[in-house]
Design a protein that fits this description.
Two copies of one chain form a homodimer.
Chain A: H1 10-29, E1 34-36, H2 43-47, H3 79-89, E2 96-98, H4 103-117, E3 130-135, H5 139-147, E4 151-158, E5 161-162, H6 164-171, E6 176-181, H7 195-203, E7 212-216, H8 234-240, E8 247-252, E9 264-267, H9 270-280, H10 289-299, H11 302-331, E10 337-339, E11 348-352, H12 357-366, E12 369-371, E13 388-391, H13 398-422
Parallel strand pairs in A: 1-12, 3-4, 3-6, 6-7, 7-8
Antiparallel strand pairs in A: 2-9, 4-5, 8-9, 10-11, 11-13
Helix pairs in contact in A: 1-13, 4-5, 7-8, 11-13, 12-13
């Protein structure tokens, strides 16, 4: 018989809180020190790319075109590396660059140059502008906007991507210059944008003639099921709709090979690429092409990337299963929480009773389990409902993850029961 | 008997021009394709760091503090790498960061953030500001200022560094926010800043309370003689003078290990570092720490760097000797050119008759010898006297360098004689 917390009498609730507090006391006494905060790969995942630590090898420093990758130059990155990642990111090798070790840098630098100089198709630098922020979303996207003084306008997520009616309504304002999108296995809620979402984002009229879709395809090949989810081609859709400069596609090898030593990618129209590379040419003489060659030798082909990702999946799937099982076992009957079962990506999102998320994160923290701060997936770190918690299960070993989840569900129950009792 | 071109009669000049034109015709017919444009290391220099291509090795991914360098994090760079480079750059490991593969990036990003946000000790973003540019100087420094709309005010170089009376006079203007300096083996003219220069730059009153010295110590260990030239400690001098935030010191391993895959360094006061790292923390989750560990394993110690630089010197010295000899043999008696004999760094500067530099570069280009564009060492690429040519002898093999120098001196003589004849 399922009895939710809300159906309990005051006496039953009071007893429940007492027993949960006792359990929480025991938990705190264990002196745990566990971390579910960030989407970091585990040591076992990094071990999958151990071969990179010996590559390219001392006799190997020639690119396919014969050039010496040890020397300066090559602002767009090694063509043969772009050829490997292009099909995986829905790009063409000649319409993308491979630069640096972090796609976040490319998003940041695109926006910083937009603020200072304006972008192709626009008539002025981006001052006093706004960005649409589907929520919950990725905190580091929002931090860039906050840094640059851009207004952030939250847009609700649906199962198919951001609420399109709302996006179309808001984008009519010329002040609104763009939207953040994580179109596949969205961070943190795992949605996959539907074909209609992609098409309408590409086609919609916008008030700003220089509107941009920041298409952070961070989890393009980061599947957690046998079924490789695909999304529509935003570049092609935007070209077909007469908005070729609208999408800026980002990708990264950081969660494919080595987190701090991967490669970042940006794909866009020629106008965007020429504009960005022109600006970056004042900043650098070129990327670390040896790391490009290293990745080419290791990954070899798009299929090589997919084979590697299958190994990641074998390591990650048990962790996500454990999280789902722990939540189901302990919370399914309580009526105080729901959660996502992502088909890819790096996160599980736990939705709790409004007003409880920050208390749960606080309780967990006091018991030694670090969680992403409540509110992080919202602009300025403010969750209006205070009910979203992002769980990052990838980094800790399974045994630690089990401990952390047991602690987390206890904190969820305690905070929820306390809230109901006080109501 | 030394007879300069200027002492020749019109007839003699006319004969000279005719014979030089004939020689130039033969030169052009050879169809050479040589490049003296940029300060790139040669393949032999890159070979000195071949071991890096196998490092760190598959079992080696732990930093000295036990952390896994393969994962995210560590915004300031690996401490043990900073310890190796700190003494060579006159810095303390805790007062520097190691980030990216290009010190130019760090200069660019410091200035870009200054323009958008202002710097510690200042009261406003850097809009409508000016920078002092000792000339001849480094074209890429000037390109950053040009990109950001900063006014560039040329300051003459002396044998001891920039003309200090002029610097002090100009720095009294609050609009002047900084100065570019390459204090050792200056690019392109090779000067070494005297102790008095360093002290006065650190001590001088400035109109701007947030004045910065961009101290690009690009050639800190790039000696061409047995005598390792040292410069005074700008950080200590500025601290002693009560201007701790004034100097920003840059360094790079690009011309020590591998040009495109080195490490960049920035050293400054805590206020500057905290400000910059705070801004960069919105841009990246950390540098490529595997490349840091790779460099630690390869270089081992400050002495390891110096030992490596001695091998560079053994390769570079014959090239600089060849350039000096070619210029002496062919131009010493002509009175139409003077040149530098640098004790370190990457360039020789050739000073020709006013109005001749661009013609010489043009003649050389038409004969297949690419030279840095005349004017490049000046703000906006405009040499007011049109008499400075930067020679970069490091990249070509000796035989090609000999061919290129023979061609260059011929072009110098031809342009000079033609100018004198037309006068």
């Amino acid at each position: 018989v399922r009895v939710t917390f809300a159906e309990l009498s005051q006496t039953e609730l009071s007893d429940l809180v007492a027993s949960l507090r006792a359990a929480y006391g025991e938990l705190s006494a264990r002196g745990l020190k566990l971390d579910l905060t960030r989407g970091k790969p585990s040591a076992e995942q990094l071990d999958l790319s151990t071969a990179l630590l010996d590559l390219p090898g001392s006799a190997d420093y020639r690119a396919a075109d014969g050039s010496d990758v040890r020397n300066y130059g090559g602002l767009r990155g090694l063509p043969e590396l772009r050829e490997i990642f292009a099909p995986l990111l829905g790009l063409k090798p000649e319409s993308m660059i491979a630069v640096g070790n972090s796609s976040l840098e490319l998003m940041h630098d695109y926006l910083m140059h937009a603020v200072l100089f304006g972008v192709p198709g626009g008539s002025a630098p981006w001052r006093d502008v706004a960005f649409l922020c589907p929520v919950p979303g990725y905190d580091r996207h929002f931090s860039i906007c906050a840094k640059l003084g851009m207004e952030m306008i939250p847009v609700p997520m649906t199962a198919d991507g951001p609420d399109l009616a709302e996006v179309e309504r808001l984008a009519a304002d010329p002040k609104v210059k763009g939207i953040w999108c994580v179109p596949k296995y969205s961070n943190p809620t795992g949605e996959i944008y539907s074909p209609e979402t992609v098409r309408r984002l590409a086609e919609m009229p916008t008030g700003a003639e220089d509107f941009r879709i920041f298409w952070d395809n961070a989890y393009a090949v980061h599947h957690l099921t046998d079924e490789q989810q695909e999304i529509e081609d935003i570049i092609g859709a935007a070209q077909a709709a007469g908005h070729p400069d609208r999408p800026i596609v980002f990708g990264s090898a950081s969660k494919i090979t080595l987190a701090g030593s991967g490669i970042a990618f940006l794909g866009a129209s020629d106008a965007n690429l020429d504009w960005l590379v022109g600006h970056l040419s004042k900043r650098t003489i070129g990327p670390d092409k040896i790391n490009h060659l290293r990745h080419v030798r290791f990954l070899e082909s798009p299929q090589g990337v997919l084979d590697l990702m299958a190994k990641h999946r074998a390591l990650l799937r048990p962790k996500f299963d454990l999280v789902g099982q722990a939540l189901t076992d302990e919370l399914a009957d309580t009526g105080v929480a729901t959660w996502t079962t992502p088909r890819g990506g790096y996160f599980v999102t736990l939705t709790v009773r409004p007003g409880c998320a920050s208390r749960i994160v606080e309780l967990a923290g006091q018991a030694g389990i670090a969680l992403t701060p409540a509110g992080a997936p919202f602009p300025h770190g403010k969750d209006p409902q205070d009910n979203v918690i992002r769980i990052a299960p990838t980094f800790p070993p399974l045994t630690e993850l089990a401990d952390a989840m047991a602690a987390l569900v206890l904190c969820v129950k305690l905070a929820s029961a306390e809230q109901l009792l006080a109501a």
